[in-house]
Amino acid sequence: MKYNFDEIVPRRRTNSYKWDTAQEENVLPMWVADMDFRTAPPVVEALRKRVEHGIFGYTKVPSAYYEAVINWFARRHGWQIKKDWITYTLGVVPALSAVIKALTVPGDKVLVQTPVYNCFFSSIRNNGCEVVENPLLYINETYRIDFTGLEQKAADPKVKLLLLCNPHNPAGRVWTRQELTRIGEICLRNDVIVVADEIHCELVFPGHTYTPFASISKEFLMHSVTCTSPSKAFNLAGLQIANIISADEYMRMEIDKAININEVCDVNPFGVEALIAAYNEGEEWLEELKHYLVVNYNYLKAYFNEYLPGFPVVMLEGTYLVWVDCSILKRRSKEIAETLLREEKLWINEGSMYGEAGENFIRLNIACPRQVLIDGLDRLKRGIKETMI
Ligand SMILES: Cc1ncc(COP(=O)(O)O)c(C=O)c1O
């Protein structure tokens, strides 16, 4: 390996949301989707150069930015994006919120497949819309789509959008082309626009393939909006940069209005430099990162097999967010999370954050050096065995 993902980089007292939110020094955070690895060296180098310039005025996004996005998706995912389709903004959540504002009126309904990323719920409600849940089916330690439920719910004329999480946080699925095609056909038949949050698209493990929803057909492209960012794959969340990709001119105009109304239309110089460097020069680092994450996941699986066999680990096809079934404890997930924090100083996410369908689960972030992962697993094992069973 050229890059050292085993290196422990102290993050306390760096104003890290993940590390500095807990007051106590010895809390181990395995919650928010933020990695404990330094980003790719070319990104650090690009940022260093920009810092050395010393002037940080308002930013004009250069054509090199668009080229980096276009080339990345063409090269890695076979998706040809046109420059005009790209609207930059401050993050995927601001993107989702603006897209919902642009394509609905208050009182409309938006479909989600639960358990799902918690901000989906708030973005829908903040825009005056109603959440309609089509829970995923939990079968044999993985999730499937309930297509019958989806067809029924999409048929409600008040349902205007489906927020698709591809790959899916926290269910760990990388939706197949076949699954995406069925989703798209249902949505087309019922005049539902697909809003694809593809922020986790680079973190896909061997044996699985990310398919950009909009790349499947011209019809899907014209009836969807895609939100992406290099922020998860390259650990750049604090730099606040993301893209909304929409081929339909009318939708794009409405989205542009919404990002202006929401005042999320200006980005900062670091986000722009980081994205260009990551997409143009970060591939080699990303491939090694993925390898490291797979080994972490396999380590965790083996650990559970040995010490916590009653706790099924949901199959992880992508992302670094592991979803663990804790039904055996017969406790609410909030109580499990509070107990782990209190007794073992381990901070994980309670499954109920992701909708009622997540109630029996917890979510663990495994994007950390292996030694930290082992510490987290030991705390989890002790917390469960000594205080909950
Ligand atoms: C599915 C999904 N969308 C969006 C985000 C956050 O995006 P951003 O930080 O760009 O607003 C996350 C973060 O975990 C996520 O998992």
State the secondary-structure class: alpha/beta
Structure annotation, total helices:
14
In spatial order, strands of the major sheet run 2-10-9-8-7-3-4
Largest beta sheet, briefly? 7 strands, mixed
Which ligands occur here? pyridoxal-5'-phosphate
How much helicity do the residues have?
Answer: 40-55%
Which band does the percent of strand residues land in? 5-15%
Q: Secondary-structure element sequence? A: HEHHEHEHEEEHEHEHEHEHHHEHEEEH
List the uncertain runs.
none
- Quick check: average pLDDT? 98
- Annotation, overall tally of beta strands: 14
Quaternary state reads: single chain
Radius of gyration: 21 Å
Give a description of the structure.
This protein is an alpha/beta fold. It is 42% helix and 14% strand. The chain has helices spanning 17-20, 41-53, 63-77, 92-103, 119-126, 147-154, 177-189, 218-222, 231-234, 249-261, 269-281, 283-307, 333-344, 370-387; strands spanning 28-29, 86-89, 109-112, 130-133, 137-139, 142-144, 159-165, 193-197, 224-228, 242-245, 321-325, 346-347, 349-350, 361-365. α7 links the parallel β7 and β8 (193-197). α6 (147-154) runs parallel beside α7 (177-189) and α12 packs parallel to α14 (370-387). The structure holds pyridoxal-5'-phosphate.
Topology overview:
Blueprint: H1 17-20, E1 28-29, H2 41-53, H3 63-77, E2 86-89, H4 92-103, E3 109-112, H5 119-126, E4 130-133, E5 137-139, E6 142-144, H6 147-154, E7 159-165, H7 177-189, E8 193-197, H8 218-222, E9 224-228, H9 231-234, E10 242-245, H10 249-261, H11 269-281, H12 283-307, E11 321-325, H13 333-344, E12 346-347, E13 349-350, E14 361-365, H14 370-387
Parallel strand pairs: 1-12, 3-4, 3-7, 7-8, 8-9
Antiparallel strand pairs: 2-10, 5-6, 9-10, 11-14, 13-14
Helix pairs in contact: 2-11, 3-11, 4-5, 4-10, 6-7, 12-14, 13-14
